[in-house]
Design goal:
- The protein has helices at 23-30, 33-36, 46-63, 114-129, 144-152; strands at residues 8-9, 13-16, 67-72, 78-85, 100-105, 135-139, 156-163, 166-173.
- The protein is an alpha+beta fold and 180 residues long.
- The termini are far apart.
- The strands form two sheets. Strands 1-2-3-4-5 form a five-stranded antiparallel beta sheet, sandwiched between helices.
- It comes from Caballeronia udeis.
- This is GCN5-related N-acetyltransferase.
Length: 180
């Protein structure tokens, strides 16, 4: 059964459902080596960016959660994506049952506090949906800005592992209502 996408609003940002019209912005962001160097290490092709957009929409339709497109409230300018996924990554030990948050900002939008603002809005939404669940994220140990953002948002490193042959830090944020 399809789920609707919750729109979120902060002082400076709007987080909304991904739309077909977002493709050019998503492709531009994911094909920018400065943006993806610590995530994929290579620029996305148009095909990969299209698959990313479809995966975001599919998460909302099938799982009731996914990624939002993030834009500036006053200008409507695309600044990135933030949201939750369930990816079946095969990381050992597995965390496939925990919601996994991720974020990506265009290079021109970094360093302005937008990431923190968007991630905190997404986490507030998640806290009402999954108060009993920890939330995880994975970050390259070389990605200092994302490591700092995770810590600002109450994530703590839980272990280092390997993902796609590269070192990866798994962060977790404890549940609001820990299970007994």
């Amino acid at each position: 059964m399809p789920h609707s996408t919750a729109a979120l609003e902060t002082d400076r940002l709007i987080l909304r459902a991904p739309q077909r019209a977002d493709f050019d912005d998503i492709y531009a962001m994911w094909s920018d080596l400065a943006v993806v160097r610590h995530v994929t290490g290579v620029a996305f092709t148009k095909e990969e960016a299209w698959a990313r957009l479809l995966r975001s929409a599919g998460h909302w339709a099938l799982m009731g959660f996914g990624y939002w497109v993030v834009s500036e409230k006053h200008s409507g300018k695309f600044i990135g994506e933030v949201g939750f996924g369930q990816y079946k990554r095969g990381i050992d030990p597995a965390f496939d049952q925990a919601p996994e948050i991720g974020w990506m900002l265009t290079s021109g939008s970094q360093g302005q506090g937008y990431g923190t603002e968007a991630v905190r809005a997404a986490l507030q939404w998640a806290d009402t949906r999954w108060p009993d669940d920890e939330i995880v994220c994975i970050i390259s140990p070389e990605n200092a800005p994302s490591l700092a953002l995770a810590r600002k948002c109450a994530f703590a490193p839980s272990r280092t592992t390997t993902y796609k042959g590269k070192p990866t830090v798994v962060f977790q944020r404890e549940a609001l209502s820990p299970k007994d």
